[in-house]
Automatic annotation (TrEMBL):
This is Phosphatidylinositol-4-phosphate 5-kinase type 1 beta. One of its GO terms (molecular function) is ATP binding. It comes from Bos taurus. Residues 1-21 are annotated as: Disordered. InterPro entries: PInositol-4-P-4/5-kinase_C_sf (IPR027483), PInositol-4-P-4/5-kinase_core (IPR002498), PInositol-4-P-5-kinase_N (IPR027484), PInositol-4/5-P-5/4-kinase (IPR023610). The gene is PIP5K1B. SMART domains: PIPKc. It is found in: Cytoplasm. It comes from the Eukaryota.
Amino acid sequence: MSSAAENGDTAPGKQNEEKTYKKTASSAIKGAIQLGIGYTVGNLTSKPDRDVLMQDFYVVESVFLPSEGSNLTPAHHYPDFRFKTYAPLAFRYFRELFGIKPDDYLYSICSEPLIELSNPGASGSLFFVTSDDEFIIKTVQHKEAEFLQKLLPGYYMNLNQNPRTLLPKFYGLYCMQSGGINIRIVVMNNVLPRSMRMHFTYDLKGSTYKRRASRKEREKSSPTFKDLDFLQDMHEGLYFDTETYNALMKTLQRDCRVLESFKIMDYSLLLGIHILDHTLKEKEEEISQNVPDAKRPGTQKVLYSTAMESIQGPGKSGDGIITENPDTMGGIPAKSHKGEKLLLFMGIIDILQSYRLMKKLEHSWKALVYDGDTVSVHRPSFYADRFLKFMNSRVFKKIQALKASPSKKRCNSIAALKATSQEIVSSISQEWKDEKHDLLTEGQSFSSLDEEALGSRHRPDLVPSTPSLFEAASLATTISSSSLYVNEHYPHDRTTLYSNRQMGCCCCCCC
């Protein structure tokens, strides 16, 4: 999939030229990553398993890898470099917690060349993905790496208490030193699998200040849009069944509170949308068949960290919204406001920004010029609340908000009105003859009955203030059916009078 990023040190118009980061060629960085991780993970297998101790979070192991090789390291054609591994035992525990075996970790990272990805952000970081789609490798700044290392004890505690999370899953923190330059990298889960085409990709923060993709980003083959673009393209939001919606919002709320407790802000929700269109699906299958992985067939599965598993836990799936495509790659089933079937891939990214002095000054300066509540940089508590409100009200919605089909509406009305008719018949059976005239003339009182019965479906947003002609006809059919139920307990003349009075009320409401 992807082309090299267009930021960094690559000159415009020279896209075929190799990109550099801190004056180091990306090929040298990729080679050092594979050699260094291959050595450190292989060396770690000789150490016995044990509980993680507090001091394990601050251990740094270092190995020198000369180009001519040594007794411990292989020869290579890159410049001499030193490779540091931060908290190796702690990260080994994290990988085991996520079900990643050492052999699989090494195979994914070291067996095939890493693939460079485009970076839509302004950080200038390099992004690499493993050939089997499992892991993302990102270069990070010194402050971010330092913050992650300090975060590890709290991260460890949170994962033990809450394995269901959309927060990044960190698998390793490393540093390559060569020629007096330090290049720090972190290995994380891959949120957006390349083997599943993303028809739309969004980076959402819940803010509106300058939150629109640039013209340069829009010209890319797979652009990453932002909040204002989402509000324009998906103004009705994305719809889930009740169970999935509740699980997703619960996970987001819990993750945001964790980030708030760590004084983290300026994070984003990376959202990939795949539209389940049969024509597009067939084209994608043809493309994927042209580049098979003969060594490891069917490996583009992203089993270690799927979006569905992150909100519902392993072994669970959706409620049958999507049945045509059994291989959903762990995507969350959803629907658009047009009724299109979707697969959503998502994860919270960029969590290594703490509300330090520079961020406080940035917010204060922007707040003087613009509306302070709309800028992305804000204090952690406000940022979390705004982020959750945006996701809850503008991005994700329950599927009940969609227009129900006539058959479902009629079935729900029958079930609700049958239950309601029982209560009403029992309450008025003693005074039936005395109130015949009143019941026939007070048709308006039963309009509230209709609303109460329809409201029992727990879909108040679908009930109009004035019933439509279709609902009136459906209600008439319903009450005619419910009269058969009443006939088992009461004489025919009373049931007929009751049904006629209900029918008269419906006609009044429709008129």
